[in-house]
Every structure is written in structure tokens, then in C-alpha cells.
Amino acid sequence: MKNSPIIALDFATAENVYQFLSPFEKSLFVKVGMELYLQEGPSIVYKLKEMGHDVFLDLKLHDIPNTVGQAMKGLARLGADLVNVHAAGGRDMMMAALEGLEAGTSAGNSRPSIIGVTQLTSTSEKQMQEEQLIKTTIDESVVHYAKLTHNAGLDGVVCSVLEARAISEACGPKFLRVTPGIRLAEGDSHDQIRVATPSNARLLGSSHIVVGRAITKAESPVEAYETILKMWEEQA
Ligand SMILES: O=C(O)c1cc(=O)[nH]c(=O)n1[C@@H]1O[C@H](COP(=O)(O)O)[C@@H](O)[C@H]1O
């Protein structure tokens, strides 16, 4: 799996995706999320893989263990490099997801990496405490979910940059810390709450960053990507 910034392809159609990707003359790490997958289905994943890109298939599965396990068995066949579930689904659900993924991976191929979403980067501590009735700090909740995910045998978590260091200390440096909520210092945060710059992400312990609108909505997406890549690589 590449270590370059993961570009969130939050577009409604495959056509929009191809248009967006055409000026990038290299192989990238891209993310297919709900918006795109629910319109285009598996074919978009096959196509992006054929084009030579690494693919994070971000469907954030969250259901009973049997349902998630069977769904993962099917998703394993799509050839994505990275998939995810909601850690709030629990340890048994995450273990079923991992088993499904292993069962669905054909012999000779390596199974996709699988990570658990902790607290979404659009969630504030106040919101978490009031809406989810979790009475700890958000850092404690995220690290708790990370330990649960680690214990279930998954490869890492989605978290914000602000919790990445504590997770690495609790679960070890090989446990992935994939962090969305990335913005340039002058950028609009939109609906994200726990945000950081690409440089701070590297300094504070992210293993991968996910960047959507700071690239996709930029005047020149290629320039924005190169700037973010440079900031990310400079701090390595
Ligand atoms: O799992 C994710 O990728 C994810 C988890 C999370 O906590 N926060 C989060 O923003 N994401 C995804 O990361 C991307 C962030 O997009 P931007 O806010 O436009 O950079 C979106 O595609 C989200 O679906």
C-alpha cells in the first residue's frame, strides 16, 4: 500500500472521476466512498485498479456480525487495498469482518487491509458526550476504540490527527492511523471539527492522510495535491 495522501473521490459519477484524474500523470492512492460506490458499484473499483491506483474502499460497514462478515466476503473480491468498518459495531463484528475478508480473498492474493472508524472527524467532544452519552474525553473514546480494534485483529483505525500519537503508543507503530480532516492552514473546515494540516499530521503521528475537498475543490487539483504531498513528505 502506498503512503502518499489518499485522495477522497467524493464525486457522483465515474465520468466526474475520470475527468478529475486525467491531469494527474501518476499512480495515486484514492478513496471510493459511499457517494461514488452507491452510484457506480464494483465497476468503479475494478476500473481504478486497472488504471494502476491503490484503492481505499470506504463503506464504513456497521451491522450485526453475520451481515458484516458476509458483506466483507463479497467486498474482498473487488481487489481494494484497504476497507473499513465502524469500531462502534463491536469486537465480534470486527472479527467477523476480518474473517469474511480472509474467506473472500482468493488463494495467492493478499487480503485487503482493514481498519476501524473510531469517532468521526466531524464529531466534537461536546457532541459525543451529549449525543452518544459517552462521558469521557474524545481522546479517551478514540483510544478505547483503537484498542478494541487492535484486539479484534484489525490493521488500524481511522481517527483524527489529534489522537494519532496516543494510538501509536497504545497499539504500536505498525497499527495504521489513517487521518481525514486534513486542511491547509488557510482552508475552510467545512463540516470537519478535528482538523490538522498535512505537516502536523506527519509530525503528530498519522500513518496516512485522507484529503478530499482541499484537492477536489481546488482551482488546480494537481497543484493542490503536489503542495500537500510536499508538506507530508517534508516532515517524514
Ligand atoms: O473513513 C473515512 O474516510 C472518514 C472518516 C472520518 O472520520 N472522517 C472523514 O472525513 N472520512 C472521509 O474522509 C473524507 C474527507 O473529505 P474532506 O473533508 O473533503 O477532506 C470524506 O470522504 C469522508 O467520508
Which features does this protein show?
decarboxylase; alpha/beta; binds orotidine-5'-monophosphate; pyrimidine biosynthesis; 15% strand; EC 4.1.1.23; TIM Barrel; 8 strands; Aldolase_TIM; eight-stranded parallel β-barrel; 11 helices; 236 residues
Describe the structure.
With about 240 residues, the protein is α/β, with parallel strands linked by helices. The chain has a single domain (about 5-235), classed as TIM Barrel (Alpha-Beta Barrel), CATH 3.20.20. About 45% of the residues lie in helices and about 15% in strands. The protein contains eleven helices and eight strands. The protein has helices at about 15-20, 35-40, 40-50, 65-75, 90-105, 125-130, 140-150, 160-170, 200-205, 215, 220-235; strands at about 5-10, 30, 55-60, 80-85, 115, 155-160, 175-180, 210. Strands 1-2-3-4-5-6-7-8 form an eight-stranded parallel barrel, surrounded by five helices. Helix 4 (about 65-75) runs parallel beside helix 5 and helix 7 crosses helix 8 (about 160-170). The radius of gyration is 17 Å and the shape is globular. The protein binds orotidine-5'-monophosphate (OMP). Orotidine-5'-monophosphate binds near residues 58, 120 and 192.
